[in-house]
Structure formats: structure tokens, C-alpha cells
Amino acid sequence: MTHDELIALDHQYVMPTYGRFDVDIDHGQGATLYDAAGKEYIDFTSGIGVCALGHGNQGWIDAIGQQAAKLGHCSNLYYSAPYAKLAQTLCERSSMAAVFFGNSGAEANEGMIKLARKYSFDKYGKGRGTILTLQNSFHGRTITTLTATGQEVFHNYFFPFNAGFRYAQANSMESVEHAAGHDVCAVMLELIQGEGGVLPMDKDFVHDLAVLCAERDWLLLVDEVQTGIGRTGSLFCFQQYGILPDAVSFAKGIAGGLPMGGVLANEKCRNVLGPGSHGSTFGGNPICAAAACSVLEQLNDDLLTAVIEKGDYIRAKLKRKKIPGLGAVRGMGLMLGIEVTGERTNKELAALLAQNGLLILTAGTSLRMLPPLVITKAEIDKGLSILEQTLRG
What we know:
Blueprint: H1 3-13, E1 27-29, E2 32-34, E3 40-43, H2 46-49, H3 58-70, H4 81-94, E4 98-102, H5 105-124, E5 130-134, H6 143-148, E6 165-168, H7 173-179, E7 184-189, E8 192-193, E9 199-200, H8 203-216, E10 219-223, E11 247-250, E12 261-265, H9 286-298, H10 301-321, E13 326-332, E14 335-340, H11 346-355, E15 358-359, E16 361-363, E17 366-369, H12 377-392
Parallel strand pairs: 3-15, 5-6, 5-7, 7-10, 10-11
Antiparallel strand pairs: 1-2, 2-3, 4-12, 8-9, 11-12, 13-14, 14-17, 16-17
């Protein structure tokens, strides 16, 4: 199928919900992708933070194939080994107590919201179900997670939105106190606001927030859909903030390219959601779980250390190059945002870079880098060279 034939097929049969770049992707290896005509692209997106092990990872491929030949799906009415092994690994490596498996980040955040409200209802009864989130946050595209998202631009079209959320300013305990009330049961936040512009939370603010939550018996909910699974240089970003949340959502990179998400709960919250209170047809699917086990097996200390080193390497090269139209670099590990300071918008730049062979994301008004965790320095250099040539050209 040619590029034009593919576009025509898409336009005829697919709902137009995505503003796609004029690029088709056919196959890839590592952090390098190729279109149907063989053109090469350096991948600084990893499927929006999904393909943690890059493309064509043989261990991941083998795990999927072996499990598919054995058992593709059964039901959560029965036990199967892959999800149980995955749960053990996640809990042991995160210091959390139990996990619920679903399919996506939005679904994981919905699960955290349900857990928080049920925890409060079981202990305090009705009237204590409000969750505080932060301005500029992003938590998903279901009705509830759109409401939880602290960006007014998302609060449109799909009225009525759900009640039960109030918004506070990031890094301001004064704003949190102003938004507080007797009806609050939890605070939910991203430790790095991804879609909002790759904006890390101040560590003192996070610590003070954790203390406040403990004092008032609010659950501290951390959305690690984008920051989790090694993206920032530790399995979960909260491990670098010195806190242990009550619940943590994860998705994106966990299964390396297959749809999976979930919620980790601490000991206090491990039994809040009992039989019949929550569920997911495909949650813990054996093939996805086997893929996730392969991801975590390969995501060892050496690779996590390399994530930090590669992030530092990118920062140092960008600082040294002083590329016109780009400003400060923010983020942790391989979750980086670059301020756009020139006349062209970040979206215009991303489209131009794609034409020139570099796939990169946007967030807020910045460019966003979420490359595969296994990206090589050669691929990094090639991608940064395209970036520099495009902006200097």
C-alpha cells in the first residue's frame, strides 16, 4: 500500500479524531522507524512513551509469541500465571502492596478515583468524595478523567461533566489549602505534568502535600501513566521524591507496546476494592502480562542508570549547541521538554522535523522528548543533528 493509498483509506473509514502528521510508519528497530517507502525516522516519541524497549526487541517479541501460543485470553474469573508474576514484580520493586490491572492510563486513573471514593465512603460515609487535582494537569479522556484534568481547554463539548473535583495551583500549599474542605477524600497529581508542558513538581511541595494528606486522611494518588516504568530513571518517579503514595496509576510503557494499565495500592488501600466493586474484561490479559514481564526483566538497574545518563547527555548537547528558537530544557531522565522561543510554534516545528526525519512530540508550548529507553547515543546524535539543522536552516 502506498502512502497516498493509506491516507485515502484512513480518510474514508476512520473517525477524524487525530491531527496526524503526513507520515506513515511501516516498521522499526531500536529507536529508528521506517515508512512504507523506506524513509528513515529517528523516534523521540516511542509511541507517546509506550515503546519502552524500542521497536523490534527480540525478548519482548519472544515473550508475546510464546504466551500467544499457550493462552491468549481466559477471564479474571480464573487464575493464570502471567498476571500473578507481573503483580509480584511490580509490588516488590515499588514497595506497594497490591495491584489492579486494566487497559489504559485513563482507565487506571478512573480506578484510582473509585478506590479513593470507596475508601472514604467505607470509613466516613457519604459527602466526602471530592478529589483535588492541579491546574495544568492531564489525567485522561474519559468523562471523569477529563473533569479531573486541570485544563479548561478540555472542559468543553461533552456536558455535563462530573462533579467532585476542585483544582489547586501546582507547587502552592496555600492554593491547596484554599481548595480544601470537609468534602475532600484525596489529592491526585502528576509528579511531572506531561501534557501540560513537562513541568516537574517541586520536591518540597510534594513532601508537604504527602504530610497534609496523611494528617487529614486524604489519599495521595500519583498519576504515573507517563512518568512510570523507567521513564525518569527509576521504575516509578515517586521513588525519586522520597514518598510512598496510597495509590499509583501506570500504563503506557508497562507492556512495551501492548495495551495495559493498572493501579498499585499501598497496604492501607489494598483491600478497598473487593469482589464486584471494580473489574476489567481484558485486565491482566496473559499476552499483555507476559509482555510486561519482559519489559520489567529488561528494565534492570543498568538500564535505569543509562536512562539518567542519556537524559543528561541530551541536556548537555542542547546546552552546548545553543540552537536558535529553543530555550530551557526541563524534565527528568528521558522525559524532557524544550521551550520553544522562536517565531514558529511547537506544532509547526514538530511537523517540519517529521518531514526531515525526526519524530518529536509537543506539550503545552514546548517540544517534548519521550524516546525509547534503549535509544543509542548514535540515534540521539542523529536526532539532535536533525533538530539543529532544521532550526538553523
